[in-house]
Amino acid sequence: MKNRLFSILTVLLISLPFMNCGLPPGSMEGPLDDPQQEPQQEHLSDAVKGNTQKRRIEDLEYSPDGTKLAVVVGNGIWLYDAQTGQELAQCAGHIHHVFNIAFRPDGETLASVAGGQDSTIRMWDVHTGKNLRTFKFQAWDIAFSPDGKTIVCGDSSHKVHLLDADTGKRIRTFTGHKGYDYHVQQVAFSPDGKTIAGLGAPSKTVILWDVNTGKLLQTFTGQTEGIQSLLTFSPDGKLIASGYDSHTTSLWDVHTGKRLHVITDARSFYKVSSAFSPDGKMIVLGSYRKGYDIGLWEVKTGKEVRTLTGYREKNPLRRDRFGRYISENPALTYLEFNPDGKTIATAGYYSVHLWDVNTGYLRKIIQF
User: Fold this and answer.
1) Residue 197, domain member (yes or no)
2) Is residue 100 part of a domain?
3) Nearest Cα to 336, choosing from 70, 73, 154?
4) H helix intervals, the chain
């Protein structure tokens, strides 16, 4: 009898590692879309599990309807109510810091891309923060097509790829950025979905391709100054804006390749998806003339029409919960127009500032 009991216990002990044991759904991650496996949740750090590792802001973006604001900090993504600043959901799972995010045009899904040992593109439910799909793909930036069926991403081998948004299957690859170890750090779709733009680094050139044929359409260079950032189409798709090392921003004619305006002492440091106002009449940029203020420029003339103020020490919003003055530059990293045209979100390293477009005054700060 003892030998029989010993035999049963031995079989059970051997079998346990292969049994689910009734764990709740989601406790054991399924496979990626390629044969590689998702890192098991129990092997992730506590910071990833709870998504509490709030560090420097890496990206921010408004939902298409303007009701939500997604903010990337470290390896986590936070979703906020765009008006109240209330936290709505968290997206946890990346094991490396997230480079960039993009909302699907229907506003129901958020895509994110992370590098390093992660090197994945993930799709998230914006209401629950649940990870819906994961594609094993190394990329720097990501953008959805206007119809939401495809995504474009730039990789570390100076190539741009068009992928199916639901399966991750590669549809087309765009080339043109040349050189050794170049990566495409920013990508964008034109509003009509017919053109893709890619900003290469360290080549610092913007290239436009035809989506359907892969044909190279235009190449924009900074001539003596290198293109640094701010790759964004105007709402009508006729213009594209790019920022330069020399603290200037240029507006280009997409069809002719001509540079129309050069705005001096104004540049965004990193990615900007919606620097143009929804009506296309203004563009928001960081101003270097006035101590890192934020300015609104008229697109037609290239002239500054308004300065966003109210972030100086006298504004009580600029105090943290301990009463200390928040001294960081509020436009150090990202600037975004809300699709409603009434609010602009800007980001320093550790806080997001929400501005009233009509008054130019600061109305809320989300602190990290």
Assistant:
1) no
2) yes
3) 70
4) 2-15, 46-50
Number of C-beta neighbours around residue 11 at 10 A: 10
Domain range holding 116?
39-136
* CATH code: domain of residue 98: 2.40.10.480
- Residue 127's alpha-carbon distances to 107, 123, 187, 229, in angstroms, are 10, 12, 26, 31
For the chain, the domain total comes to: 1
Query: Which residues 6+ apart lie within 8 Å of 237 measured at CB?
Result: 190, 191, 192, 195, 254
Q: How many CB atoms lie within 10 A of CB 296?
A: 21
221-269: pLDDT as tens digits: 755 555 556 678 999 999 988 776 556 788 889 988 888 888 776 655 5
Residue 158: how many CA atoms within 13 Å on its side-chain side? 16
The answer to whether the CB of 303 falls within 8 A of the CB of 264 is: no
Asked if the model's pLDDT at residue 361 lies above 50, the reply is yes
Termini Cα distance of the chain? 63
Give the pLDDT confidence score for residue 266 in this predicted structure: 61
Specify the length of the chain in residues.
Answer: 368
Whole-angstrom Cα distance, residue 231 to residue 87?
A: 29
Prior bond to 202 cis, omega within 30? yes
Residue 101 lies in a domain: yes
* pTM score: 0.79
Domain annotation covers residue 126? yes
| Bridge partner residues of 277 (DSSP) | none
Q: What digits encode the pLDDT tens for the residues 169-202?
A: 999 998 877 655 557 778 899 999 999 998 876 5
User: Cα separation of 318 and 185, whole Å?
Assistant: 32
Q: Which of 350, 346, 348 is nearest to 363 (CA)?
A: 346
